[in-house]
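Quick one:
INPUT:
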């Protein structure tokens, strides 16, 4: 009786959705810390610590010669950057607001906006962190040279997109079995520490071991990113199309599963 409706054109509705995505993305960026600068420093520190750990480990084990001929630190960072971007996209999307979240009570907010905002906030933080780290490294230790900057950045985006698609699967399954899905998500992100291929060169991996890594889209994106980064490395055991197809398939399944879950989920499922 007292409900007010206002007709909108397609262009006006699109602007409204974009504005909501922008506002919600800013909210996600500031969620980790009230000061966005401190949040960025935390992300940069996490990346630098991981890079330092791997450099120390390679030095102690004496396997630096197994890396690609070129800048050794850039070789380490090319794997770490994509690894963190992928895993943080998984965590951001799987942890976004579901249909039962109080935020969904505020029209025209919906789960599509929440998922998109969570994914974009993760990408924003990671791209900014990578840019600051590479700029600082080039100032302190010499110019960072990429054979194909656009191709390397495209692989970073592909690592993010595949992580967001996998996060969609976890998000859709979480209301049905939150404990089990949380364990599976942790197992996947921990397994990426080894199966992503950031610790070794794919071209030097024996054929009988490739089956342990070739299923992982992150393995392909990291190997292809190193091909775009180093002039003397040509990937033979990875493909660009595999992570693209994998992402599209997971995204399609995730969207269908999220729609199915959204139509059936209830607040009473989480009641104690």
């Amino acid at each position: 009786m007292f409900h007010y409706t206002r007709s909108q054109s397609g262009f006006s509705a699109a602007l409204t959705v974009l504005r909501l995505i922008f506002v919600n993305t800013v909210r996600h960026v500031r969620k980790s810390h009230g000061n966005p600068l401190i949040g960025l420093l935390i992300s940069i520190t996490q990346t630098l610590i991981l890079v330092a750990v791997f450099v120390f480990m390679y030095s102690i084990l004496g396997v630096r010669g197994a890396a690609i001929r070129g800048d050794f630190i850039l070789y380490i960072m090319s794997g770490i950057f994509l690894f963190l971007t992928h895993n943080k996209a998984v965590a951001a999307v799987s942890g976004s607001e579901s249909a039962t979240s109080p935020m969904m009570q505020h029209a025209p907010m919906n789960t599509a906006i929440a998922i998109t905002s969570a994914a974009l906030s993760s990408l924003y933080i990671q791209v900014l962190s990578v840019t600051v780290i590479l700029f600082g490294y080039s100032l302190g230790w010499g110019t960072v040279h990429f054979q194909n900057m656009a191709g390397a950045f495209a692989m970073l985006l592909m690592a993010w997109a595949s992580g967001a698609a996998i996060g969609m699967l976890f998000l859709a399954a979480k209301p049905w079995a939150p404990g089990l899905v949380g364990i599976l998500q942790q197992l996947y992100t921990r397994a990426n520490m080894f199966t992503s291929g950031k610790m070794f060169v794919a071209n030097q991996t024996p054929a009988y071991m490739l089956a342990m890594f070739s299923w992982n889209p992150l393995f392909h994106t990291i190997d292809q990113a190193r091909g775009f980064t180093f002039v003397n490395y040509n990937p033979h055991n990875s493909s660009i199309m595999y992570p693209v197809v994998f992402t599209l398939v997971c995204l399609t399944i995730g969207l269908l599963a999220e729609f199915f879950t959204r139509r059936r989920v209830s607040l009473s499922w989480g009641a104690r």
